[in-house]
Design goal:
Strand content: 5-15%
Order of helices and strands: HEEH
Radius of gyration: 26 Å
Shape: elongated
Strand order of the largest sheet: 1-2
Number of helices: 2
Length: 113
């Protein structure tokens, strides 16, 4: 049988100064912000990977297949040629890469020095 120990736990009042509380709050805000930035970066990287996969799939199409490729803009799909769609995907990828750099810069700025 497992033995259990019953002991008394003393609770002491801990005095936290205003300055200490401000540091704790700043740390909590920074930690929360870092978590949000990490989530945003992961979401952007996933979107970037999806765009790269779509771009690769379009590249594998034969030029003879010159079909209209649907491209989603907002809630609407618009049909474009293979070249136009490829150009739009490249633009979207560059935009996402820039956004990822901005988020990573914000994350670096949030780190305590």
């Amino acid at each position: 049988m497992a033995a259990t120990m019953k002991g008394t736990v003393s609770v002491e009042d801990v005095n936290v100064t205003f300055e200490d509380q401000q540091k704790i709050n700043k740390f909590a805000r920074n930690t929360n912000r870092m978590s949000e930035l990490k989530d945003e970066i992961e979401a952007k990287k996933k979107s970037l990977q999806n765009l790269e996969d779509a771009s690769d799939d379009i590249m594998m199409l034969d030029d003879e297949d010159s079909i209209a490729i649907p491209y989603q803009i907002g809630d609407v799909f618009i049909s474009h040629s293979q070249e136009e769609t490829q150009d739009m995907l490249e633009g979207a990828k560059e935009s996402l890469k820039d956004e990822i750099k901005v988020y990573e810069g914000s994350m670096a700025a949030t780190l305590p020095s």
